[in-house]
Amino acid sequence: MRIELKKFGEILISRPAGREAFLAMSAYLTKGLPEDEAVEIDFSGVKVLTPSWADEVITKIAHDFRNIKLVNTANSTVKATLKTLSEYSGLKI
Fold first, then answer.
1. What is the DSSP letter of 65?
2. Do 92 and 62 form a contact (C-beta atoms < 8 A)?
């Protein structure tokens, strides 16, 4: 399963928007998938990513699935946000 975050916008900044994106993913993309399903999260096309949005989406996906791969993470806001999540939310990807 590949999740292209650009489908949710180029600027991913608020906790409510992240919560809405996660609910949409849960209903349409990841519903019924086994927890050992390989999930690839693609950050291409994302210009801005904040920890609040990512906490609502990335942290919850990582909680639901064991085999997560992050791709196209070269953007500086993506790098900084993932570092923040690993330090403060215990995200281990």
1. -
2. yes
Q: How far apart are CA 34 and CA 86, in angstroms?
A: 24
Considering only CA atoms, give the Rg of the chain. 12
Rounded-to-integer distance, Cα 47 and Cα 45, Å = 6
Q: Which helix (H) or strand (E) holds 67?
A: strand 67-71
Burial of residue 51 (number of CB atoms within 10 Å: 0-12, 13-18, 19+): buried
Cα gap 45→10, rounded to integer Å = 6
pLDDT, tens digit (0-9, with 9 covering 90-100), for 21-59: 999 999 999 999 999 999 999 999 999 999 999 999 999
Closest CA to 21 of 61, 71, 78: 61
Residue 9's SS3 state is coil
